[in-house]
Amino acid sequence: MEEIANPGNTPISTDELADLIPNLASQAELNEWERENILQAARWALDKKSWNSKGIATEPFVRELHGRMFSETWKWAGRYRQSEKNIGVLVHEIQERLGELLGDVRFWIDHQTYTVDEIAVRFHHRLVFIHPFPNGNGRHARLIADILVSKLGGKIFSWGSAEITEISSVRTRYLTALREADKEDYTALLKFARS
User: Does any domain span residue 128?
Assistant: First the structure.
């Protein structure tokens, strides 16, 4: 399967690509297959009445959500990456950095450190920065932010009201907002999440 070069995408290694479950011929087929799998996971997570906001900010939930999002697509769904990428922390740092982030999110919730939107957007940004999985990190981080903001009483984000995985001006705005957040300025990412 030939992959389309898309700025901001994490390259999939040959070993990771070998773990593709369905037999697909193109990137477009893969995108559609993943989209259906993600919609099932979103329904599961958003309908689940037993999740509370702090339960979402746990390592088991982070992994289970990714697993459900990509379980029909990749054998490695829900498992941390084992190879270095063009983005993200070093492989041996993933669990420690994720633990720190989850502790921070629970603290922000308990102490109302930020607005509901900013807690979710900061969670999203740092999860993308850590990049714990071989692929699907942006989509996973956006969905987990949607789930968290919903459980905290807010409205689910619109994330530019377009498909962010495709090359477009919307994707460019998203990647630019992430780079600003890397510099601790969340203004553009907060605006983008609600655009």
Answer: yes
| CATH number, position 50 | 1.10.3290.10
Best CA proximity match to 94, nearest among 79, 77, 76, 74: 79
What is the pTM for the complete model shown? 0.90
Domain that holds residue 42: 14-156
pLDDT tens, residue order, the chain (195 aa)? 444 344 556 778 888 888 888 888 788 888 888 999 999 999 999 887 767 888 999 999 999 999 999 999 999 999 999 999 999 999 999 999 999 999 999 999 999 999 999 999 999 999 999 999 999 999 999 999 999 999 999 999 999 987 777 778 999 999 999 999 999 999 999 999 999
- 44 assigned to some structural domain: yes
Whether 95 is covered by a domain: the verdict is yes
In a domain, 126, yes or no: yes
If one counts the domains in the chain, the total is 1
